[in-house]
Specification:
- Strands 7-5-6-4-1-2-3-8 form an 8-stranded mixed beta sheet, with helices on both faces.
- It is of the alpha/beta class.
- The chain folds into 2 domains: 224 residues, Spore Coat Polysaccharide Biosynthesis Protein SpsA, Chain A, CATH 3.90.550.10; 70 residues.
- It starts with a strand and ends with a strand.
- Helix 5 packs parallel to helix 8 and helix 9 packs antiparallel against helix 10.
- The chain has 10 helices and 8 strands.
């Protein structure tokens, strides 16, 4: 396949209201890159939108030779859509950005400049954001937790825009990991990361597709796939309960010797059984989750299927 200098990958899902404005911005960026003798492609990955996004892309494609459009057979989430774009792209570098214009396409020039300093990965580091208050709080909790306990090089303010070179792109594709946070996977593959500060603006139109359920799944996937924190947590809970129960046992023995233990004793038994029973159930469920994910990975089913493609 013919290589190009740069692939711009944009996952979309029900973004019909943003597409026209997105291409108004993209045209300016692409024209400037072409004037600098850069070869490039723009890949829009439609994560099986239910609105008229694909129909609009079919019409827009007629005007731009640098545009490629891919539609997935089923909705699989933005990280799978990003993976599909990385798997299909030809660029020596890949720039990933969202379609809602919360991050402007012309950021690419800052990322390219930073990449020229020798970084394999350049990650956007949000300095300000105009999202709703509730989403800010949830995202801040997630970012702080991940940066403190999961990955030390994860940006404290979060980020969803990045530029990677061909080496990292190939590594991500070879990993072929399901239920993964692409950004965290990148950071787990490369520790020498460049950062570009940027402001996250309000969405151009429409509503964010990241509801509480999706954000919770992303956080859960991040912790499960790149960290052993759950196992360590259960271990220390187990140690703590063992210490407490041992002390409680000695206390009961002493009180029994002193004749101060009532015959019933049902309360202490109930507390002990409930505590240990809950811990065992949580441990078994967590082990089952890891076993299921291993099984799901070893089945080697494709993460995505291309339903339609415009080249």
């Amino acid at each position: 396949m013919k290589k190009v200098d740069l692939s711009i990958i944009i996952p979309i899902f029900n973004e019909e209201e943003c597409i026209d404005a997105l291409f108004d911005s993209l045209k300016i960026v692409v024209e400037k890159l072409l004037s600098e003798d850069k070869t490039l492609e723009v890949i829009i990955v439609d994560d099986h939108s239910g609105d008229s996004s694909w129909e609009k892309l079919e019409e827009i494609k007629k005007s731009y030779s640098w545009l490629r459009c891919i539609r997935l057979l089923r909705n699989s989430g933005s990280h799978v859509a990003i993976y599909a774009g990385l798997n299909q792209c030809l660029g020596e570098s890949a720039f990933i950005i969202s379609a809602d214009l919360q991050a402007k396409p012309d950021l690419i020039f800052d990322f390219m400049k930073k990449s020229e300093e020798g970084f394999d990965v350049v990650l956007g580091d949000r300095q300000a954001r105009t999202d709703p208050f509730f989403k800010k709080v949830i995202s801040s909790i997630f970012n702080i937790f991940v940066s403190k306990f999961v990955m030390k090089n994860f940006p404290m303010n979060g980020g969803d825009v990045f530029l990677i070179n061909r080496k990292i792109t190939n590594a991500i594709v070879e990993c072929n990991e399901k239920n993964v946070n692409i950004f965290v996977l990148i950071l787990s593959l490369c520790s020498d990361v460049g950062h570009v500060n940027y402001q996250r603006f309000e969405r151009y139109a429409g509503k964010s597709k990241w509801d509480v359920k999706k954000l919770s799944k992303l956080a859960y996937d991040t912790i499960i796939t790149v960290s052993n924190i759950p196992f360590r947590f259960i271990f220390w809970v187990g140690v703590s309960t063992f210490v407490v129960s041992t002390a409680f046992t000695f206390l009961i023995i002493i009180l029994k010797i002193m004749g101060k233990i009532p015959i019933e004793g049902w309360a202490s038994i109930l507390v002990a059984v409930s505590s240990f029973g809950s811990l065992i159930l949580i441990s078994v469920a967590l082990l089952g989750e890891y076993l299921w994910r291993n099984f799901d990975q070893t089945r080697n089913r494709p993460m995505y299927i291309i339903d339609n493609e415009l080249k």
